[in-house]
Each structure stands twice: as C-alpha cells, then as structure tokens.
Model the fold of this input.
Amino acid sequence: MERKPLGIYIHIPFCASKCSYCDFYSLAGCDHIMPEYQDALISHMEESSKAIRNYEVDSIYFGGGTPSYYGADRIAGLLDVLKLNGNVRRDAEITVECNPDSASYQALKLLHDEGVNRLSIGVQATDNNLLRMIGRRHTFQQAEKVIGNARDVGFDNISIDLMYGLPTQTKQDWAETLAKAVALHVEHISVYGLKLEPGTPMYKDYIHSPVLPDDDAQADMYFYAAQMLERYGYHQYEISNFCAPGFLSRHNLKYWELDDYMGFGPGAHSCIGHLRYSYVSNLREYITAVERGTSLLEEYNNLDAMERASEYLMLGMRTAKGISEQDYRRLCQSDWRPIEKTLRIFRDKGWVTPNGERWHFTVPGYLLSNQLISILLEVQAGGRIENTPWLSELFDAEDKTEMPLSEEELFREMYINVTESKREDEE
Done:
C-alpha cells in the first residue's frame, strides 16, 4: 500500500534573547532546560512512531525560537530518532531555522552532514541600526558570513527572511535592503510587514509613533518587493514568499494546501485529514505531560465540511496556485457558484485573475487579502456584511485606507447583488 506524504514540524522554543517585535512562543535565559526538553521531544517522537510509520515523511522543519541556538548536535539527535522510527524519504526536504549569531561553520557542517538540506536564515534587515532597533543580535556582515559558510559546507537551498515597515525605515532603505538581499544569490526570500503585537516591547514603544511607516508606505514597500524580486527571477508563490525556479518551500506548502503534517513541542500544531490539534503552549507543562504520560493537548477539532471549505478558501487564496472549482468540490462538497460570482467581481476590480480553471490574487489583491477572503467566507456561508458586525467593522476600518470611498460603496453594492443572486438561486 502506498503511504501518504507527511511533514514533521519540531518547535524549538529557545532563544539567546527575545526580539522586540516577537510574540511567538519562545523563551530566553532557559538554556538549563534544554537537556530536559531534548529528552521530552525524543520520548514524544518515539511514542508517536507508530502513527508516523503509516506515512512517508517528505519534509521536516525545525522552527522556533532559534533552532541554531539550541545546538546542531541536539538537532542531529532528533533527526536520528526520526530516521530510526519513521519512514523518512532520502529526498526529504529538511529545514533548520538559523540566526546569524548562532550558526557557526562547525554547526553548519554538522547539520549538512546529518542530512539537513535547507536553511532559513533570519536576516530581517541589512541596516545594522535597524537591526539593533528591533532587538536583533547580529549584524548584516554576520549574515553574509553565515551564508558564505553555508555555501562552503555544501548548502544549495538557502532562504532568508526580511522585514519592511520598520520604524524610521524609508522606501529607499527598503530598496537598498532588497538590492543587497538579491546580491546574496539565495534561492528563497520571505518578506514580512511589521505588525505590532500587544505585549511586545515594540508595541509599547511604537504603537502611535510618527516614525512608523503608515499603511500606504507599507503597501508601496510590498508592491516594490513583488515587482523587484520578480524582475530578478524570484517567483511569488505565496503572499510573503518568493523563490528561484524549483525552490518553493515544500514543507510550508503543506500548510497552504491542506496536506498532512504533525507537530512536536509546546504550541506545535498538527493537521491530519480533517483533524486539527495543538499542544500546550508552555514548556514546563509540555515536558511534565510527556514525562507523566498525561494529555498534551490544548486544542482538538475534527472539522466538518463547511470548516474544511473555509480552510481551503483561506489558505488556498494565499498562494499563487489559488483555488479551483474542481478542488473545492472534491475537498468540500460545497456550492461553488456564489464563490465564482464573487471572484468575477474581484477580477473586474483587478484584485484576482483567472489562470485556466484556477483563481488567484494579483499583487493589489494580496494587499487586501484579509478583507477579500473574509468576503469570500461570508458568501460561502450565505451571509451579508450588514448581518455580520465584526466583518462590517473590519471592512470599514481597513478598506478606507486602501481605496476611495466611492469605490468602497460600489464594492458593497456589487457584494449585496452577489448574495441576493445566490439566495434567488437557492429558492
């Protein structure tokens, strides 16, 4: 019997220090817990080996936190457990997230020798002043050195993360960042707009600061990145991700295409068919639960057909591949007609475009993706904006900065026509 493919995600929640913008579950100053956590991870993976053997593991991703800070030797140990207890393909994509200040030449060599074949390096900015401002521990020169060392030990699949919309960052600063990034000749580039998260130091310092680029400036930065990277051969295949031909992140595609993946570690999520579950977002509780054999679960949900259909819309529209009637009906057994009517309206506005039987966002559509996906979900559910207060508030609050009021009014009118037409079809 042919086994289905499976992705494995392993969360490493340790950092040398917390970045000022980060609200992910990660901890600084907890190095003394690393050995205990390693034992818990190994126990958990070994306990899950029977379930993993039902699949063929074709991607493994070590995320964080800062896996490179956790140590190459520990990561190698975790890989050994997976190789012994699971069906890991020889050509599996194995990614490790790295920060430039914690990825030595020796560590990179060990990772490569153990089968890691993809690195995701948190560069974030090429201006050292900006890096200090957002709480990063490295310089751009360190990032350049790490990439050079990675090439020397044999890595031919390297991704870097970049951030735009940073305090005091101008459009010219962003253009220079992208130019320096392209000059690194990496295979994959991810770009993320700064989002100030409550509870982070940057939220407190900059939430109402005039030095923070406004929405229009961030939109301009995003447009420029999409156009510039495409010009240099980086194809946009997801809202925030660009790659050279053949270098899509196979593991991340599993999230967006509803494929199966299994997570390990505090806060890690899993997706197996219609089943979604996650583990407690607390390191000590996670370790204790593994040691005592008690429940690790924080959330557990078996999706019904409508929830599955909603997932397909939300995640599929994030990608350049987009969505199609054939996939929608196969996965969701839901009515495609109101979705297509809405997509045609979006097309007339320049927000989506068809490609054969598939539909996907344009760059302007990506900028409005949260609002447009919310509209699609409302159409899917047969509702109207006026009957959904939270959606109406979102539309009013965000779209006014994106388009003239007359455009918004026209959009609302067309949206109402779509939902009323759907209702007539049903009657």
Notes: DSSP finds 19 helices and 17 strands in the chain.
